[in-house]
Amino acid sequence: MDSAPVIIGIAGGTGSGKTSVALKLKSFFPYERVELLHHDSYYYDNSHLEMEERAKINYDHPSAFETDLLLQHLSELKGGQEIIQPRYCYETHSRLVEGTPVGPADILLVEGILVLDDQELRKRMDIRIYIDADPDERFIRRLQRDIRNRDRSVESIIEQYQTTVRPMHMRFTEPSKRYADLIIPEGAHNEVAIDLMAVKIRDVLQRKESFNGLRDENGGKG
Fold it and tell me: How is domain 6-209 classified at the CATH fold level?
């Protein structure tokens, strides 16, 4: 019987380097099954709305995410099953028809601006990380990303940042750092913190494997 995966939550503001940290951590475990879940993939499908209405949605508020589906998927992955992670299109604010198969896994990295804000998500996590980056640097990264990858104008990016992104960051994302086991300044550039985190993940993984082996010896009893 496979042991339940180690689940690591990685939160932080937009452009803080959450995905970069996740990929850096993944590189430490070449022989394990490591999967990455993006909270952004679980935005509600708004294809039933007109484009003008979709553009007005506050995508930085917890209500924009179908977190219940993510929780369901985490339960299934914990049980050794494969899930189909949704694929989200930022240009159309809707889900694509086909999702992405994920799992089973030894290590699950769950990243997103609000993954530490949700109590039920936090309960599923073995380790909780918050990436703390300079606000100006985060905004510049977001600006470059949205122009390059999402075909958005500078004016629309600035307006969205001022009206929803920053206010929601101050209301939900920033306060959620109090739930973190480790706060990492400078994101993936902080090699010392990444190295320490990898050691901790390895320790939790080995303890889970040892516990599972003990259960097998006892006929499934802990």
Answer: Rossmann fold (3.40.50)
